[in-house]
Q: What sequence folds into this?
Protein backbone atom coordinates (compact mmCIF):
# COMPACT_ATOMS: atom_id res chain seq x y z
CA UNK A 1 0.00 0.00 0.00
CA UNK A 2 1.18 3.51 -0.77
CA UNK A 3 0.12 6.83 0.66
CA UNK A 4 -0.59 9.37 -2.07
CA UNK A 5 -1.15 13.11 -1.76
CA UNK A 6 -1.04 15.97 -4.22
CA UNK A 7 0.63 19.31 -3.62
CA UNK A 8 0.51 22.45 -5.76
CA UNK A 9 3.87 24.20 -6.13
CA UNK A 10 3.35 27.61 -4.58
CA UNK A 11 5.13 30.94 -5.13
CA UNK A 12 6.65 30.55 -1.65
CA UNK A 13 8.29 27.26 -2.73
CA UNK A 14 10.20 28.80 -5.63
CA UNK A 15 13.51 30.57 -5.95
CA UNK A 16 14.87 33.34 -8.20
CA UNK A 17 15.57 30.68 -10.84
CA UNK A 18 11.76 30.24 -10.98
CA UNK A 19 11.84 26.61 -9.83
CA UNK A 20 11.29 24.84 -6.52
CA UNK A 21 14.11 25.65 -4.07
CA UNK A 22 15.46 22.20 -3.21
CA UNK A 23 15.23 22.48 0.62
CA UNK A 24 11.55 23.27 0.10
CA UNK A 25 11.06 19.75 -1.31
CA UNK A 26 12.21 18.46 2.08
CA UNK A 27 9.65 20.64 3.83
CA UNK A 28 7.05 19.08 1.48
CA UNK A 29 8.43 15.63 2.33
CA UNK A 30 8.11 16.37 6.04
CA UNK A 31 4.51 17.49 5.61
CA UNK A 32 3.80 14.40 3.47
CA UNK A 33 4.95 12.17 6.35
CA UNK A 34 2.77 14.22 8.69
CA UNK A 35 -0.28 13.88 6.41
CA UNK A 36 0.41 10.14 6.19
CA UNK A 37 0.37 9.87 10.00
CA UNK A 38 -2.87 11.92 10.16
CA UNK A 39 -4.78 10.46 7.23
CA UNK A 40 -3.08 7.14 6.44
CA UNK A 41 -1.92 5.75 9.77
CA UNK A 42 -4.70 7.52 11.71
CA UNK A 43 -2.15 8.52 14.34
CA UNK A 44 -2.47 12.31 14.60
CA UNK A 45 1.07 13.59 14.19
CA UNK A 46 0.50 16.59 16.47
CA UNK A 47 -0.36 14.14 19.28
CA UNK A 48 2.54 11.84 18.39
CA UNK A 49 4.86 14.84 18.90
CA UNK A 50 3.09 17.07 21.38
CA UNK A 51 1.18 14.69 23.65
CA UNK A 52 3.11 11.41 23.49
CA UNK A 53 6.42 13.31 23.28
CA UNK A 54 7.83 10.96 20.71
CA UNK A 55 10.09 12.41 18.04
CA UNK A 56 10.77 11.36 14.46
CA UNK A 57 14.12 12.82 13.43
CA UNK A 58 15.72 12.04 10.09
CA UNK A 59 19.09 10.33 10.36
CA UNK A 60 19.81 9.67 6.68
CA UNK A 61 18.52 11.29 3.54
CA UNK A 62 19.15 10.49 -0.12
CA UNK A 63 17.47 12.49 -2.82
CA UNK A 64 17.73 12.36 -6.59
CA UNK A 65 16.34 15.49 -8.18
CA UNK A 66 15.60 14.21 -11.67
CA UNK A 67 13.66 17.12 -13.17
CA UNK A 68 12.70 20.65 -12.15
CA UNK A 69 9.29 21.75 -10.89
CA UNK A 70 7.83 25.15 -11.62
CA UNK A 71 5.38 27.45 -9.86
CA UNK A 72 1.84 26.15 -10.38
CA UNK A 73 2.81 22.52 -11.07
CA UNK A 74 0.72 19.86 -9.38
CA UNK A 75 2.93 17.26 -7.75
CA UNK A 76 1.75 13.74 -7.01
CA UNK A 77 3.62 12.46 -3.97
CA UNK A 78 3.79 8.73 -3.27
CA UNK A 79 5.11 7.23 -0.05
CA UNK A 80 5.81 3.65 1.02
CA UNK A 81 7.94 1.84 3.58
CA UNK A 82 11.06 -0.04 2.50
CA UNK A 83 11.98 -1.33 5.95
CA UNK A 84 10.73 -1.19 9.54
CA UNK A 85 13.35 -1.69 12.25
CA UNK A 86 13.00 -1.81 16.03
CA UNK A 87 13.03 1.99 16.23
CA UNK A 88 13.74 2.99 12.63
CA UNK A 89 11.87 3.38 9.39
CA UNK A 90 13.12 3.55 5.82
CA UNK A 91 10.76 5.49 3.57
CA UNK A 92 10.74 5.66 -0.19
CA UNK A 93 8.96 8.51 -1.89
CA UNK A 94 8.51 9.78 -5.40
CA UNK A 95 7.21 13.16 -6.48
CA UNK A 96 5.89 13.36 -10.03
CA UNK A 97 4.56 16.13 -12.25
CA UNK A 98 2.24 14.28 -14.62
CA UNK A 99 4.30 11.27 -15.74
CA UNK A 100 7.62 12.97 -15.14
CA UNK A 101 9.60 11.93 -12.08
CA UNK A 102 10.77 15.06 -10.29
CA UNK A 103 12.48 13.53 -7.28
CA UNK A 104 13.05 10.24 -5.55
CA UNK A 105 13.66 10.19 -1.80
CA UNK A 106 15.03 7.56 0.54
CA UNK A 107 14.71 8.76 4.11
CA UNK A 108 15.68 6.98 7.31
CA UNK A 109 13.74 8.14 10.35
CA UNK A 110 14.02 7.09 13.96
CA UNK A 111 11.47 6.99 16.75
CA UNK A 112 12.89 8.90 19.71
CA UNK A 113 11.91 10.15 23.13
CA UNK A 114 11.62 13.94 23.03
CA UNK A 115 12.80 14.01 26.65
CA UNK A 116 16.17 12.44 25.84
CA UNK A 117 16.38 12.59 22.01
CA UNK A 118 17.42 8.90 22.22
CA UNK A 119 16.01 6.15 20.00
CA UNK A 120 13.21 4.03 21.42
CA UNK A 121 11.22 1.09 20.04
CA UNK A 122 8.12 1.94 18.00
CA UNK A 123 4.99 2.01 20.17
CA UNK A 124 2.85 -1.05 19.33
CA UNK A 125 0.00 0.93 17.81
CA UNK A 126 2.40 2.83 15.53
CA UNK A 127 4.13 -0.38 14.44
CA UNK A 128 0.79 -1.99 13.64
CA UNK A 129 -0.34 1.05 11.66
CA UNK A 130 2.92 1.14 9.68
CA UNK A 131 2.78 -2.53 8.60
CA UNK A 132 0.36 -2.25 5.64
CA UNK A 133 2.64 0.34 3.99
CA UNK A 134 5.65 -2.00 3.96
CA UNK A 135 6.43 -2.93 0.37
CA UNK A 136 8.06 -6.33 0.14
CA UNK A 137 9.73 -5.65 -3.19
CA UNK A 138 11.54 -2.46 -2.26
CA UNK A 139 15.26 -2.70 -1.73
CA UNK A 140 15.84 -1.04 1.61
CA UNK B 1 41.79 23.76 0.66
CA UNK B 2 38.50 23.91 2.54
CA UNK B 3 36.04 26.74 2.91
CA UNK B 4 35.02 27.24 6.52
CA UNK B 5 32.21 29.37 7.94
CA UNK B 6 30.42 29.44 11.27
CA UNK B 7 26.69 29.73 11.74
CA UNK B 8 24.70 30.24 14.93
CA UNK B 9 21.57 28.09 15.19
CA UNK B 10 18.72 30.58 15.38
CA UNK B 11 15.20 30.28 16.82
CA UNK B 12 13.88 30.33 13.24
CA UNK B 13 15.93 27.19 12.43
CA UNK B 14 14.33 25.08 15.16
CA UNK B 15 11.20 23.01 15.38
CA UNK B 16 8.77 22.11 18.18
CA UNK B 17 11.17 19.35 19.24
CA UNK B 18 13.60 22.19 20.08
CA UNK B 19 16.22 21.11 17.55
CA UNK B 20 17.17 22.18 14.04
CA UNK B 21 14.43 21.26 11.56
CA UNK B 22 16.29 19.08 9.04
CA UNK B 23 15.28 20.98 5.85
CA UNK B 24 16.74 24.07 7.51
CA UNK B 25 20.18 22.42 7.40
CA UNK B 26 19.81 22.36 3.61
CA UNK B 27 19.00 26.07 3.60
CA UNK B 28 22.21 26.55 5.63
CA UNK B 29 24.07 24.35 3.11
CA UNK B 30 22.75 26.46 0.24
CA UNK B 31 23.88 29.65 1.94
CA UNK B 32 27.27 28.07 2.71
CA UNK B 33 27.77 27.41 -1.02
CA UNK B 34 26.72 31.00 -1.70
CA UNK B 35 29.18 32.37 0.88
CA UNK B 36 31.89 30.18 -0.66
CA UNK B 37 31.23 31.67 -4.10
CA UNK B 38 31.25 35.21 -2.63
CA UNK B 39 34.17 34.95 -0.21
CA UNK B 40 36.13 31.86 -1.30
CA UNK B 41 35.85 31.72 -5.07
CA UNK B 42 35.44 35.51 -5.38
CA UNK B 43 32.63 34.95 -7.89
CA UNK B 44 29.69 36.89 -6.46
CA UNK B 45 26.84 34.38 -6.41
CA UNK B 46 24.17 37.03 -7.04
CA UNK B 47 25.96 37.89 -10.30
CA UNK B 48 26.47 34.21 -11.17
CA UNK B 49 22.68 33.79 -10.94
CA UNK B 50 21.23 37.18 -11.75
CA UNK B 51 23.64 38.68 -14.29
CA UNK B 52 25.29 35.70 -15.96
CA UNK B 53 22.02 33.72 -15.77
CA UNK B 54 23.79 30.52 -14.84
CA UNK B 55 22.05 28.19 -12.41
CA UNK B 56 23.38 25.71 -9.87
CA UNK B 57 20.66 23.17 -9.15
CA UNK B 58 21.22 20.19 -6.91
CA UNK B 59 20.74 16.84 -8.67
CA UNK B 60 21.75 14.47 -5.88
CA UNK B 61 21.89 14.89 -2.13
CA UNK B 62 23.07 12.53 0.59
CA UNK B 63 22.99 13.60 4.19
CA UNK B 64 23.84 11.77 7.39
CA UNK B 65 22.42 13.52 10.42
CA UNK B 66 24.69 12.14 13.14
CA UNK B 67 23.72 14.31 16.11
CA UNK B 68 21.13 16.96 16.90
CA UNK B 69 21.77 20.70 17.07
CA UNK B 70 19.99 23.00 19.47
CA UNK B 71 19.02 26.66 19.47
CA UNK B 72 22.11 28.77 20.20
CA UNK B 73 24.68 26.19 19.08
CA UNK B 74 27.55 27.50 16.99
CA UNK B 75 28.08 25.30 13.95
CA UNK B 76 31.39 25.10 12.14
CA UNK B 77 30.71 24.32 8.49
CA UNK B 78 33.47 22.92 6.27
CA UNK B 79 33.20 22.57 2.52
CA UNK B 80 35.49 20.96 -0.07
CA UNK B 81 35.19 19.54 -3.59
CA UNK B 82 35.30 15.79 -4.17
CA UNK B 83 35.03 15.94 -7.95
CA UNK B 84 34.73 18.50 -10.74
CA UNK B 85 33.09 17.30 -13.96
CA UNK B 86 32.47 19.10 -17.24
CA UNK B 87 29.33 20.73 -15.83
CA UNK B 88 28.99 19.08 -12.43
CA UNK B 89 30.46 19.41 -8.98
CA UNK B 90 30.50 17.00 -6.08
CA UNK B 91 30.73 18.78 -2.73
CA UNK B 92 31.50 17.30 0.66
CA UNK B 93 30.55 19.23 3.75
CA UNK B 94 30.60 18.66 7.46
CA UNK B 95 28.81 20.66 10.13
CA UNK B 96 30.20 20.35 13.64
CA UNK B 97 29.20 21.64 17.06
CA UNK B 98 32.51 21.76 18.92
CA UNK B 99 34.10 18.38 18.17
CA UNK B 100 30.79 16.66 17.56
CA UNK B 101 29.86 15.89 13.97
CA UNK B 102 26.27 16.98 13.41
CA UNK B 103 25.87 16.22 9.72
CA UNK B 104 27.82 15.11 6.70
CA UNK B 105 26.63 16.16 3.24
CA UNK B 106 27.48 14.92 -0.23
CA UNK B 107 25.83 17.16 -2.78
CA UNK B 108 26.01 16.95 -6.57
CA UNK B 109 25.37 20.26 -8.29
CA UNK B 110 25.22 21.10 -11.97
CA UNK B 111 26.00 24.28 -13.86
CA UNK B 112 22.98 25.16 -16.00
CA UNK B 113 21.69 27.88 -18.25
CA UNK B 114 18.79 29.66 -16.53
CA UNK B 115 17.25 30.24 -19.95
CA UNK B 116 16.90 26.52 -20.70
CA UNK B 117 17.58 24.82 -17.32
CA UNK B 118 19.95 22.54 -19.28
CA UNK B 119 23.47 21.61 -18.13
CA UNK B 120 26.35 23.58 -19.59
CA UNK B 121 30.13 23.41 -19.13
CA UNK B 122 31.58 25.43 -16.26
CA UNK B 123 32.68 28.89 -17.39
CA UNK B 124 36.51 29.00 -17.43
CA UNK B 125 36.80 31.50 -14.58
CA UNK B 126 34.51 29.41 -12.36
CA UNK B 127 36.43 26.21 -13.15
CA UNK B 128 39.73 27.93 -12.34
CA UNK B 129 38.36 29.28 -9.06
CA UNK B 130 36.99 25.85 -8.04
CA UNK B 131 40.28 24.01 -8.60
CA UNK B 132 42.06 24.85 -5.30
CA UNK B 133 39.15 23.39 -3.32
CA UNK B 134 39.43 19.97 -4.98
CA UNK B 135 40.62 17.47 -2.40
CA UNK B 136 42.55 14.63 -3.97
CA UNK B 137 41.90 12.19 -1.17
CA UNK B 138 38.12 12.44 -1.10
CA UNK B 139 36.20 9.52 -2.52
CA UNK B 140 33.70 11.11 -4.88
CA UNK C 1 -18.17 37.83 -0.99
CA UNK C 2 -15.33 36.30 0.98
CA UNK C 3 -12.80 33.70 -0.05
CA UNK C 4 -12.47 30.98 2.57
CA UNK C 5 -9.85 28.25 2.84
CA UNK C 6 -8.75 26.00 5.67
CA UNK C 7 -5.17 25.21 6.56
CA UNK C 8 -3.83 22.67 9.05
CA UNK C 9 -0.96 23.95 11.20
CA UNK C 10 1.98 21.71 10.33
CA UNK C 11 5.10 20.79 12.29
CA UNK C 12 7.10 22.89 9.82
CA UNK C 13 5.05 25.98 10.77
CA UNK C 14 5.91 25.79 14.46
CA UNK C 15 8.78 27.05 16.56
CA UNK C 16 10.56 25.84 19.71
CA UNK C 17 7.81 27.48 21.77
CA UNK C 18 5.46 24.91 20.15
CA UNK C 19 3.34 27.52 18.40
CA UNK C 20 3.16 28.96 14.89
CA UNK C 21 6.27 31.02 14.14
CA UNK C 22 4.78 34.43 13.24
CA UNK C 23 6.53 34.88 9.83
CA UNK C 24 5.00 31.54 8.87
CA UNK C 25 1.53 33.13 9.15
CA UNK C 26 2.63 35.53 6.42
CA UNK C 27 3.69 32.60 4.22
CA UNK C 28 0.17 31.19 4.83
CA UNK C 29 -1.30 34.60 3.95
CA UNK C 30 0.70 34.67 0.71
CA UNK C 31 -0.52 31.20 -0.23
CA UNK C 32 -4.09 32.19 0.68
CA UNK C 33 -3.89 35.06 -1.81
CA UNK C 34 -2.47 32.63 -4.39
CA UNK C 35 -5.31 30.12 -3.77
CA UNK C 36 -7.81 32.97 -4.07
CA UNK C 37 -6.38 33.92 -7.48
CA UNK C 38 -6.44 30.24 -8.59
CA UNK C 39 -9.78 29.15 -7.18
CA UNK C 40 -11.71 32.35 -6.43
CA UNK C 41 -10.70 34.82 -9.13
CA UNK C 42 -9.99 32.02 -11.66
CA UNK C 43 -6.79 33.83 -12.66
CA UNK C 44 -4.03 31.23 -12.23
CA UNK C 45 -1.44 32.95 -10.06
CA UNK C 46 1.49 31.10 -11.68
CA UNK C 47 0.43 32.62 -15.02
CA UNK C 48 -0.16 36.05 -13.49
CA UNK C 49 3.48 35.97 -12.28
CA UNK C 50 5.30 33.75 -14.77
CA UNK C 51 3.52 34.34 -18.09
CA UNK C 52 2.05 37.82 -17.79
CA UNK C 53 5.05 39.01 -15.76
CA UNK C 54 2.90 41.01 -13.40
CA UNK C 55 3.99 41.17 -9.77
CA UNK C 56 2.00 41.61 -6.57
CA UNK C 57 4.37 42.95 -3.90
CA UNK C 58 3.16 43.92 -0.47
CA UNK C 59 3.74 47.56 0.40
CA UNK C 60 2.04 47.74 3.79
CA UNK C 61 1.20 45.08 6.33
CA UNK C 62 -0.64 45.28 9.64
CA UNK C 63 -1.20 42.19 11.70
CA UNK C 64 -2.79 41.67 15.09
CA UNK C 65 -1.89 38.32 16.56
CA UNK C 66 -4.73 37.84 19.03
CA UNK C 67 -4.20 34.22 20.11
CA UNK C 68 -1.65 31.48 19.55
CA UNK C 69 -2.04 28.52 17.20
CA UNK C 70 -0.60 25.11 17.92
CA UNK C 71 0.59 22.20 15.81
CA UNK C 72 -2.42 20.32 14.45
CA UNK C 73 -4.88 23.21 14.72
CA UNK C 74 -7.20 23.70 11.76
CA UNK C 75 -7.28 27.35 10.75
CA UNK C 76 -10.17 28.88 8.84
CA UNK C 77 -8.84 31.72 6.71
CA UNK C 78 -11.20 34.39 5.37
CA UNK C 79 -10.23 37.00 2.82
CA UNK C 80 -12.06 40.02 1.44
CA UNK C 81 -11.19 43.30 -0.26
CA UNK C 82 -11.44 46.57 1.61
CA UNK C 83 -10.42 48.82 -1.27
CA UNK C 84 -9.42 48.56 -4.93
CA UNK C 85 -7.25 51.40 -6.29
CA UNK C 86 -5.88 52.00 -9.76
CA UNK C 87 -2.98 49.63 -9.12
CA UNK C 88 -3.42 48.75 -5.44
CA UNK C 89 -5.52 46.45 -3.34
CA UNK C 90 -6.29 46.50 0.36
CA UNK C 91 -7.05 43.04 1.72
CA UNK C 92 -8.56 42.12 5.05
CA UNK C 93 -8.10 38.62 6.36
CA UNK C 94 -8.93 36.75 9.51
CA UNK C 95 -7.55 33.40 10.62
CA UNK C 96 -9.64 31.55 13.19
CA UNK C 97 -9.24 28.31 15.14
CA UNK C 98 -12.82 27.29 15.82
CA UNK C 99 -14.47 30.50 17.07
CA UNK C 100 -11.25 31.99 18.34
CA UNK C 101 -9.67 34.77 16.30
CA UNK C 102 -5.98 34.03 15.89
CA UNK C 103 -4.92 36.90 13.67
CA UNK C 104 -6.31 39.79 11.71
CA UNK C 105 -4.40 41.05 8.68
CA UNK C 106 -4.63 44.24 6.67
CA UNK C 107 -2.37 43.98 3.65
CA UNK C 108 -1.81 46.54 0.90
CA UNK C 109 -0.61 45.00 -2.36
CA UNK C 110 0.32 46.64 -5.63
CA UNK C 111 0.15 45.41 -9.19
CA UNK C 112 3.58 45.86 -10.76
CA UNK C 113 5.49 45.06 -13.91
CA UNK C 114 8.10 42.40 -13.14
CA UNK C 115 10.33 44.00 -15.79
CA UNK C 116 10.54 47.33 -13.97
CA UNK C 117 9.09 46.58 -10.50
CA UNK C 118 6.99 49.74 -11.00
CA UNK C 119 3.27 49.97 -10.24
CA UNK C 120 0.89 49.57 -13.15
CA UNK C 121 -2.90 49.68 -13.44
CA UNK C 122 -4.78 46.43 -12.81
CA UNK C 123 -5.39 44.53 -16.06
CA UNK C 124 -9.10 44.72 -16.89
CA UNK C 125 -9.76 41.02 -16.36
CA UNK C 126 -8.12 41.10 -12.93
CA UNK C 127 -10.08 44.20 -11.89
CA UNK C 128 -13.33 42.58 -13.02
CA UNK C 129 -12.53 39.40 -11.11
CA UNK C 130 -11.65 41.33 -7.95
CA UNK C 131 -14.89 43.34 -7.86
CA UNK C 132 -17.21 40.73 -6.23
CA UNK C 133 -14.85 40.44 -3.25
CA UNK C 134 -15.03 44.16 -2.43
CA UNK C 135 -16.87 44.55 0.86
CA UNK C 136 -18.65 47.90 1.05
CA UNK C 137 -18.76 47.98 4.81
CA UNK C 138 -15.04 47.47 5.47
CA UNK C 139 -13.09 50.48 6.61
CA UNK C 140 -10.12 50.60 4.23
CA UNK D 1 21.16 53.74 21.57
CA UNK D 2 20.39 51.62 18.55
CA UNK D 3 21.38 48.06 17.76
CA UNK D 4 22.79 47.76 14.25
CA UNK D 5 23.53 44.61 12.25
CA UNK D 6 24.10 43.96 8.58
CA UNK D 7 22.60 41.10 6.61
CA UNK D 8 23.35 39.99 3.05
CA UNK D 9 20.26 39.09 1.01
CA UNK D 10 20.70 35.43 0.15
CA UNK D 11 19.30 33.32 -2.69
CA UNK D 12 17.12 31.55 -0.12
CA UNK D 13 15.49 34.89 0.81
CA UNK D 14 14.31 35.63 -2.72
CA UNK D 15 11.24 34.70 -4.71
CA UNK D 16 10.53 34.05 -8.40
CA UNK D 17 10.19 37.81 -8.88
CA UNK D 18 13.90 37.99 -7.98
CA UNK D 19 13.36 40.07 -4.85
CA UNK D 20 13.12 39.35 -1.12
CA UNK D 21 9.96 37.37 -0.34
CA UNK D 22 8.20 39.62 2.21
CA UNK D 23 7.71 36.98 4.98
CA UNK D 24 11.46 36.44 4.80
CA UNK D 25 11.97 40.03 6.03
CA UNK D 26 10.10 39.00 9.18
CA UNK D 27 12.41 36.01 9.64
CA UNK D 28 15.30 38.52 9.35
CA UNK D 29 13.53 40.77 11.88
CA UNK D 30 13.17 37.84 14.28
CA UNK D 31 16.86 37.00 13.96
CA UNK D 32 17.76 40.68 14.41
CA UNK D 33 15.91 40.67 17.76
CA UNK D 34 17.74 37.46 18.67
CA UNK D 35 21.13 38.97 17.77
CA UNK D 36 20.25 42.05 19.80
CA UNK D 37 19.52 39.88 22.86
CA UNK D 38 22.79 37.95 22.33
CA UNK D 39 25.13 40.78 21.42
CA UNK D 40 23.39 43.99 22.55
CA UNK D 41 21.50 43.08 25.72
CA UNK D 42 23.97 40.29 26.62
CA UNK D 43 21.03 38.03 27.47
CA UNK D 44 21.57 34.89 25.36
CA UNK D 45 18.28 34.39 23.55
CA UNK D 46 18.59 30.58 23.51
CA UNK D 47 18.71 30.68 27.32
CA UNK D 48 15.89 33.23 27.54
CA UNK D 49 13.72 30.75 25.58
CA UNK D 50 15.13 27.32 26.42
CA UNK D 51 16.39 27.64 29.99
CA UNK D 52 14.29 30.40 31.54
CA UNK D 53 11.24 29.29 29.53
CA UNK D 54 10.21 32.84 28.79
CA UNK D 55 8.63 33.53 25.42
CA UNK D 56 8.57 36.65 23.25
CA UNK D 57 5.60 36.38 20.91
CA UNK D 58 4.65 39.20 18.56
CA UNK D 59 1.17 40.60 19.18
CA UNK D 60 1.15 43.45 16.68
CA UNK D 61 3.14 44.08 13.54
CA UNK D 62 3.18 47.02 11.16
CA UNK D 63 5.50 47.05 8.20
CA UNK D 64 5.97 49.54 5.38
CA UNK D 65 7.85 48.01 2.49
CA UNK D 66 9.17 51.14 0.80
CA UNK D 67 11.57 49.67 -1.78
CA UNK D 68 12.54 46.23 -3.03
CA UNK D 69 15.71 44.35 -2.10
CA UNK D 70 17.53 42.07 -4.50
CA UNK D 71 19.75 39.02 -4.12
CA UNK D 72 23.20 40.11 -2.99
CA UNK D 73 22.13 43.42 -1.46
CA UNK D 74 23.67 44.28 1.90
CA UNK D 75 21.00 45.44 4.32
CA UNK D 76 21.76 47.63 7.32
CA UNK D 77 19.26 46.84 10.05
CA UNK D 78 18.68 49.29 12.90
CA UNK D 79 16.66 48.54 16.00
CA UNK D 80 15.51 50.70 18.91
CA UNK D 81 12.80 50.65 21.57
CA UNK D 82 9.84 53.00 21.31
CA UNK D 83 8.16 51.91 24.56
CA UNK D 84 8.69 49.46 27.41
CA UNK D 85 5.57 48.32 29.27
CA UNK D 86 5.15 46.01 32.25
CA UNK D 87 5.38 42.95 30.01
CA UNK D 88 5.44 44.47 26.52
CA UNK D 89 7.94 46.09 24.22
CA UNK D 90 7.43 48.27 21.17
CA UNK D 91 10.31 48.01 18.72
CA UNK D 92 11.07 50.22 15.78
CA UNK D 93 13.36 48.95 13.06
CA UNK D 94 14.57 50.15 9.70
CA UNK D 95 16.29 48.11 7.00
CA UNK D 96 18.28 50.10 4.48
CA UNK D 97 20.23 49.23 1.34
CA UNK D 98 22.82 52.00 1.17
CA UNK D 99 20.81 55.19 1.80
CA UNK D 100 17.57 53.73 0.52
CA UNK D 101 14.95 52.75 3.10
CA UNK D 102 13.68 49.28 2.26
CA UNK D 103 11.31 48.69 5.16
CA UNK D 104 10.18 50.22 8.42
CA UNK D 105 8.85 47.93 11.15
CA UNK D 106 6.87 48.60 14.30
CA UNK D 107 6.58 45.40 16.30
CA UNK D 108 4.87 44.87 19.65
CA UNK D 109 6.24 41.92 21.58
CA UNK D 110 5.19 40.49 24.92
CA UNK D 111 7.13 38.64 27.58
CA UNK D 112 5.29 35.40 28.34
CA UNK D 113 5.68 32.22 30.32
CA UNK D 114 6.24 29.31 27.92
CA UNK D 115 4.39 27.06 30.36
CA UNK D 116 1.15 29.03 30.09
CA UNK D 117 1.71 31.34 27.07
CA UNK D 118 0.38 34.14 29.35
CA UNK D 119 2.01 37.56 29.65
CA UNK D 120 4.30 38.13 32.60
CA UNK D 121 6.32 41.12 33.79
CA UNK D 122 9.80 41.56 32.34
CA UNK D 123 12.43 39.93 34.54
CA UNK D 124 14.48 42.67 36.26
CA UNK D 125 17.70 41.88 34.41
CA UNK D 126 15.95 41.99 31.03
CA UNK D 127 14.24 45.29 31.87
CA UNK D 128 17.55 46.80 32.95
CA UNK D 129 19.26 45.61 29.77
CA UNK D 130 16.46 47.01 27.58
CA UNK D 131 16.55 50.51 29.11
CA UNK D 132 19.53 52.00 27.16
CA UNK D 133 17.80 51.20 23.86
CA UNK D 134 14.69 53.24 24.71
CA UNK D 135 14.58 56.25 22.44
CA UNK D 136 12.80 59.20 24.06
CA UNK D 137 11.93 60.85 20.79
CA UNK D 138 10.17 57.94 19.14
CA UNK D 139 6.42 58.08 18.92
CA UNK D 140 5.28 54.74 20.33
A:
Amino acid sequence: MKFVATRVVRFADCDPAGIVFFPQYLVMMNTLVEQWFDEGLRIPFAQYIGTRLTGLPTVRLEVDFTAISRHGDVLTQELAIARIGRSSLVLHAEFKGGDELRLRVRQVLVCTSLATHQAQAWPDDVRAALQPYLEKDIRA
Remarks:
- DSSP finds three helices and seven strands in chain D.
- Chain D touches chain B through 20 residues (CB under 8 Å).
- The longest helix of chain D spans residues 22-41.
